[in-house]
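Repro:
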Amino acid sequence: MMTVSVVIDNHNYGRFLRETLDSVLAQVLDSVAVEIVVVDDGSTDDSREILSTYAPRVKSLLQARQGQATAFNAGLAAASGDIVCLLDSDDVFLPGKLQAVVSAFKDPTVVAVQHFLHDTDAHLVPLPRRFPAWPARYTLDDYAAGRTEFTATSGLAFRREVLLKLLPIPKDLFYYLDDFLTAHALFFGEVANIPEVLGLHRMHGANWCAGGLENPAKIERDFVDRANYAAHRDRWLAEAGRSRSPEAVEAEALELWRRRVLLESLRARPLEAARAWTEGLKTLPGTRHARFRAATTALAVLSPTLYLALYDLYSRP
């Protein structure tokens, strides 16, 4: 019989935990056993009391506070399923999620599966969301060319035999651990894309995803995490004798430029923001996309509030 493991990381999300666990327990699968593993990463709220009420249906691993990467490493090592799904403890699965994932893995070339997550507020009320035009599969060629768009943690599943080759998740990856796993998996096979909303992704004040472009501290941390992730990415590519396309390199450079300018503007340092914008012009590619990015980034120099408001409108469906 095929088995599926759902690995959940948790830290002080007791207020969401029951909804998360119940969304997994409500999944209906034919001839598939489901294992739920929760790693509680040093919670000080009522999370551990809640977990105790789900035994033995849920296997709980309790550890001192060590961070999300360490928590997932512990949970993934304990998972025994042929397929391993990831889930953050403030998110939920929608009905039919596990069945759709299992069906996608029937193709032996598929080593990972991802699906859409709909962003919601803390009460699971959907927020405006743009979904990418995914192809049926992503390959290593797509990744090297910068054509991949990855979902968040709760929309990911991996073939366990491949997942073991990807671990451990480095502790220096605070925000990009999901990209670390999905991108690395492409060096071993294809990622299947399910263009359906099969989970809800909470955006609330306590999680890192909320307001990532509005908070200078989050932008600063993103620079560190991006650099750490890029070091792993470049090593994988070098070992495979591959390199990123000029288009992928350009896209990353433009995104870093935008964030540097926005960071200075949010700090109320307009002269530094203008200087960062001017420095970026010196190496600006001649593409239409680069010129568009230059024009919109100039707005961030003048008014980060207006820039973020317009960016939000542009990003909506």
